[in-house]
Amino acid sequence: MAFTEADVPSQEGKCFVVTGANAGLGFSASAVLAARGARVVLACRNRDKAKAAMVRIREVTPDADLTFLKLDQGDLASVRAAAEQVSAEPRIDALVNNAGVMYPPLVHTAQGFEPQFGVNHLGCFALTSLLLPKLSETPGSRVVVTASLAHRFGKIDWDDLDARKSYKTSQRYADSKLANLLFLYELDRRLRASGSPVMAVGCHPGVAATELGRNSAGFRFFIRFFGWMLNTAEMGAWPTLQAATDPAVVAGGYYGPQGMGEMRGPSGLAKRVKAATDPETARRLWDVSIEKTGIDPGLPPA
Asked: Residue 169 contacts by C-beta under 8 Å, 6 or more apart in sequence?
């Protein structure tokens, strides 16, 4: 099935938490979810940018049910506070892990993690883990994990996870996206083994013209001259929307664009490299993530 925003069914009565919702893919997904009647929690670092995003959404959907949640995935204290606050919602039908950074300078997170591994993976791992009890209250709820085509080039540098020895921005980004898919794989295995009502689903946007690559001059150049060939932010959000809302998705499934080598177009089943489903690596990353964050999802090994 070629999935686009036109295929998103009514989401009346449902609540979605979307991280990084003030711009790019997160904003586009939030706008569609709100238009379909969902309550959308915009989980962002910057309140003013989130409020501006709400104004833009309400220009199209005046009665949109929106609220702001302060969240900085580069600080585990912020992640804990956000999880506690949003758990007061009557229900959460999906946690859409969209927030991330790409090619930032080497400025370690509040807890000393390499920025891309810390924000893109550990922040996602921590928030998901803390919200699993709340998600479990709603049968059919979902955790959406956003990866990237870049995962194909990733590797987990176990000896230098915090980039104290070396830091190559593009490689560390690819590593963090491989970590996202390993997390998806292990989370899915453990959720199913425990009989949890929560489903884990992955997605990637292809190559979309968003602000994510603002730290890379090469990426900005590419978007400027070849952006017409790629996904818009709206198109790039289609896999996110499919993972979050399509009744036909499968647990542990991975979804992305179907055209031009998965770079653009409607969403459907995507491919992942063998390393993304290696059980031993996934289990080791799970254990390391618990050690680094101090947060245990409480799911026994599959």
From this structure: 103, 104, 116, 215, 216
Is the distance from CB of 132 to CB of 53 less than 8 angstroms?
A: no
pTM: 0.94
User: Phi/psi at 3 (nearest 5 deg)?
Assistant: -95, 130
- For the cut 80, the answer to whether the pLDDT of residue 189 exceeds it is yes
176 burial via Cβ count (<10 Å: 0-12, 13-18, 19+):
buried
pLDDT digits (tens, 9 = 90+) for 10-50: 999 999 999 999 999 999 999 999 999 999 999 999 999 99
Q: CA–CA separation, 225 vs 223, rounded Å? A: 6
* DSSP class per residue in 159-228: GGTT-SS---HHHHHHHHHHHHHHHHHHHHHHHHHHT-S-EEEEE---SB-SGGGGG-HHHHHHHHHHGG
238 close to 175: Cβ distance less than 8 angstroms: no
Q: Provide mean pLDDT across the span 67-88.
A: 98
Active site amino acids: 173
Each residue's pLDDT tens digit, 196-230: 999 999 999 998 765 554 555 565 554 555 554 56
Residues 206 and 262 sit within 8 Å (Cβ to Cβ): yes
Q: Phi, psi at residue 67, to the nearest 5°? A: -150, 155
Question: What are the sequence ranges of the domains in the chain?
Answer: 11-293
Question: Does 3.40.630.30 match the CATH number of domain 11-293?
Answer: no
Q: How far is CA 223 from the centre of its chain?
A: 22
**Cβ atoms within 10 Å, residue 84:** 11
- Token readout for 10 is 């009514």
The widest CA-to-CA distance across the chain, in whole angstroms, is 51
Q: Is the separation of the CB atoms in 15 and 30 below 8 Å?
A: no
Residue 162 CA to residue 121 CA, distance in Å, equals 12
